[in-house]
Each structure stands twice: as C-alpha cells, then as structure tokens.
Amino acid sequence: MSYSGWIILTASLVGLSCGMIGVLLILRRMAMMADAISHTVLLGIVAAFLLTRELSGFHMLIGSVAAGLLTAVLVQWFHARGVQQEASIGIVFTSMFALGVVLIATKVGNAHLDVKHALMGEITFIPWETVELPVIGALPEAVVLLTAVLVVVAAVIFLFFKEWKLTSFDPALAASLGLPVMLMHYVFMSLVSVTTVASFDAVGAILVVAMLITPASAAYLWTDRLSVMMGLSGAFGVVSAITGYYLAVWLDTSISGSMAFATGLLFLASFLLSPKHGMVSKWLKPAMAVQSAEPGALE
Asked: By three-state DSSP, how is residue 130 classified?
C-alpha cells in the first residue's frame, strides 16, 4: 500500500471505532467525556513512563486506560455528591490534564513526550513505525493496534446491543429489569478509554474528539434507528478521513487538523440537508404545505 494509503487507512480505522462509540456518547449525553478522557490519558502516559522509563510498550496502554477509568470514576463520584455533571467533567478534566503537563515539564526531561505531540499526533510517521506479523509481514504498528481495537469495540457493541440500547435510552428501566447499569457504564468508559488511547499517538487528541463527537452528531440528524446511526457515524468518519487528507495535501497543512475540519463540514452539510432535522427541509415544508393545500382550505 502507498504512503498516502496507510495514512488514510489509519484515520479511517479511527473514524470507524470512534464513530460507533460516539453514538453511545451522544445518546448518553456524555459528549464532553470524550474531550475529558482524550486529555486525561496524558497523565496515564506520563505516569507509565515515569514508572518504566520506556516510551513504548503495553504499559503505556495500561496507564492510559487506568487514567481514563479514573476520570470516569471521579466524575461519577462528584456527580453523585451533588456537583453537576458538566462541572464534574470540567474539574476532573482540567486538573488531571494540568497535572500531566506539570509532570512532563518537571519530571520527563529530554524524553520525546510533549503536549503538542499529544494534541496533534504524528500521523505522517505512521507508515514508518512497523511491526512484523506472521504470514502477513510488516505492517504499521498503529494499523495493527487500531484494527484490534475496532474488532473489540464492534464485538462488545454487537454482543450487548440490546443492553447498550436500554441503558442509553432508559437507565432507570434497565436497572428495574436487573441489568447492571453501573457495570455497563464502566465497561463503556473502558471502551472509550481504549479507543482514545489507541488513536491518541497516531492522530492526537483533537482529531480523536472530533471523530468521537461530530460524525455521531451528524448521523443523529439522519436517522432514529441506533444500528443505522452507528453505521452512518462510522461511514462519516471514513469520509472525513479521506476528505481531510486530500484537503491537507491541497492546502499543504496539518493532516489531523484538516480531518477534524472535514468532520465539521460534514456535520454542516447534515445540519442543512438531512430530510427530517435539516434546516433546508424545515424551510421547504411550510412552502410545500401551502402549495399542496386546497384553495377552499385557505379561504
């Protein structure tokens, strides 16, 4: 595969995983948790580095997932004690991210670990960081990791689809039926953390947040069926990855930034053109209703 192909494939895998997870985030009204976790995993990465003094390895994934889960637990803990959820997210998010930045500045030293890299990622380096697989041969490490994450996310959502639907739309009813609502919540936060961490190094926090929220929000405007919404959200993520890449090449600018911008353009198109919630359809319906009305009905 070409250099451009690996970059587009990497971003498309991010778009597919984040698209499915993002729909559940939107339905659970937890969109800002995506932003929070995508930043607080920095603390987990720094903590894992300080413990091992190695910049790569499975320990980085463990530390990041632990930071994501800690974020979810602290937000839930503050919210259960009377703090509004939005305020809880803001407090935990800024505090943990700031602690990560402070630790980088004071403890990391000369290691290649910086805030700019965390925010923007290094997607242009993806094709060069490879791993050898039996039979298949050398593949970009990020592609292998993101493919594994996509399989896990799709499997967990598919196997517990009814439970996700019920706990997202009516958690009180789910609890009354005996479903472990809080366990499902933390499993879901684990999925968000794993997806975020897997995407973090390749594309950066900004594109992760964009892929988690914007395609899902666009898909929400087109359909009310959860399965269709997830499929559309993943497709929108892939379209944004492809469009953003060629936009970046055309403008000679940041690839991750252009892909994030492409998600915004796609949402704008959905906001205007979707048949049920789009602004154009809302403008046309009154005019069409007047045209189709019988002359006698207007008198």
From this structure: strand
Residue 4's φ and ψ, nearest 5 degrees, are: -65, -40
**Cβ–Cβ contacts within 10 Å for residue 178, how many?**
7
Q: What is the pLDDT of residue 297?
A: 44
> How many domains does one find in the chain?
1
* pTM of the predicted protein model: 0.84
42 contacts 118 by C-beta, under 8 angstroms: yes
Q: What pLDDT is recorded for position 299?
A: 45
- Minimal CA–CA distance to 61: which of 69, 213, 92? 69
CATH code where residue 135 lies:
1.10.3470.10
**How far apart, in Å, are the Cα atoms of 136 and each of 3, 32, 51, 128?**
18, 39, 34, 16
pLDDT confidence of residue 263: 95
Blockwise average pLDDT, block size 10, the chain, 299 residues: 87 92 88 80 83 73 83 86 85 88 73 52 74 80 89 93 88 87 86 82 80 93 92 95 93 87 94 81 63 50
Q: Does residue 209 contact residue 119 with C-beta atoms inside 8 Å? A: no
Structure tokens at 287: 């005019």
Instruction: Provide the domain limits for residue 45.
Output: 3-298
* Spatial CA neighbour of 45 closest among 93, 104, 91: 104
* Reduced 3-state DSSP string for 221-253: CCCCCHHHHHHHHHHHHHHHHHHHHHHHHHHCC
